[in-house]
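We treat protein structure as text, and this decision shapes the records that our systems exchange. We quote a single record here, exactly as it is kept in our systems:
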Amino acid sequence: MEQVGRVVRIDDGTAVVVRGEARTGVSLVILDMEGVSVATGDWLVVHTGIAVRKISAAEAAELAAELAAERDGTMGRDT
């Protein structure tokens, strides 16, 4: 499952991202191979412990809302 997190630290190809109260170490190997630079404060899409895409803050908010709705079972419902 994909998650969205904000980078708070980078060490040797690994970023520490924050999602709510949780901090998680994620690999930057894919982004490094693609030549994507990552800095503290960036937003990342993470899948199974690997950062797969860097996104804007606006994209992060939208994707986080979609993922929350999917987890809550409200995705696609008119409320």
Remarks:
- The beta strands are 2-11, 14-19, 22-27, 43-47, 50-55.
- The longest strand covers residues 2-11.
